[in-house]
Amino acid sequence: MIGVGMQGSGLLSEAITLPGVECAAACDLYDGRHTLAREIVRADLPVTRRYQTLLDAKDIDCIVAAVPDHWHKQVVVDAVSAGKDIYCEKPMSHSPADGVAMVEAAKKSGRIVQIGSQRVSSQIFAKARELISQGMLGDLMLVEGWLGRNDPTGAWEYPPPPDLSPQNLDWDTWQGTVPKRPFDPYLFARWRCRKEYGTGVAGDLLVHLISGMLFMLGINEPPKQACAVGGIRRWKDGRNMPDVHAVVYYYGELPVYMRLNLGTQMPETYRFQGSKGILEMTESGLTYTPQSGKDSAPSYYANSFPRAMREAYFRKWHEENDPKLGQERMSETITFRAPDYDDVRPHLWTFFEAVRSRKPVVEDAVFGHHAALACHMANESYFRKSAVVWDEASKSIRG
Fold first, then answer.
1. What is the CATH topology of the domain spanning 125-271+368-398?
2. What digits encode the pLDDT tens for the residues 176-219?
3. What is the CB-side half-sphere exposure of residue 219 using CA atoms within 13 A?
4. Is 118 in a helix, a strand, or coil?
5. What is the pTM of this model?
6. How far apart are CA 40 and CA 306, in angstroms?
7. Most buried of 31, 66, 341, 356 (most Cβ within 10 A)?
């Protein structure tokens, strides 16, 4: 395990409950998390500040990494280059260039890389994918997704460990290649608020909506265009990433509208709008409401006809369209409810099974790169205040 913080401690706790999985060692730059790792696993668990020690260990088959975004590229590249498979938390990359390097390293090494946007391992997402692939929605018109929080913890205002100090934290290494700053426990705990270390609400939350949508629609490509608006509307705490972020994408010709909000609570929701109906999805289930796409009554435009013409039109419409008595159509919706279902556990299991079987995973480095690019484009558009596109030739975001 590399990184035993908020997310990492949860992944570690889940991983060791899976059949045939054992934690061989743990790494973190903060010594307090060495104690935490041993509390989770066992009292004599080998721990270190240097993740290279884990990569050199012959008895370690794979890595689970949950480190700040600005460390993702180096950990993944080093892991696959050392012959280790790796599960890396989302977003895969901290920049488009990082993502390109990670994809190249994964392909060159042939190692398994799985990114930790766990929606792709959810039963309810698999059901939505099945329904959409069957053509239930008809022609897809528009996809919407949204998610909101309304509390300090949800906005990443985490309390730093009370004992945190340069004596028990390797602060210089934690900062990586970012311009060095004096020790600041709040930067350590709240790195998601700062673009130097994190990827903002796009990399923390939007990436889930994007990954889930790509999986459900069977898409594995970056958006063609992105245009974002937003701002620091609620949490004026020194952060330099927006707490409200709304983005309109083109995936090919498909319009996609995603909105994130750290100042208003909203359940994670998708709405797929098709010519044959609407599929609305939440964490607990999905509901399909069919639409015929036909007039349910004579056209109101006929009210502009003279009376005789209007009455003839109405009479003919009813003769051709009214159902026979007793055969009136009943409106219907189809609902699927998810069980009390945790998608983190099966997502980890998918990774460990792939390590054993060498079968490919859905959310590999290419998929993770494409999902992360949508987040980087959202951020670029927000800061540039203009639409941006992904240029595959130069592998860069352009205005």
1. Dihydrodipicolinate Reductase; domain 2 (3.30.360)
2. 999 999 999 999 999 999 999 999 999 999 999 999 999 999 99
3. 22
4. helix
5. 0.96
6. 80
7. 66
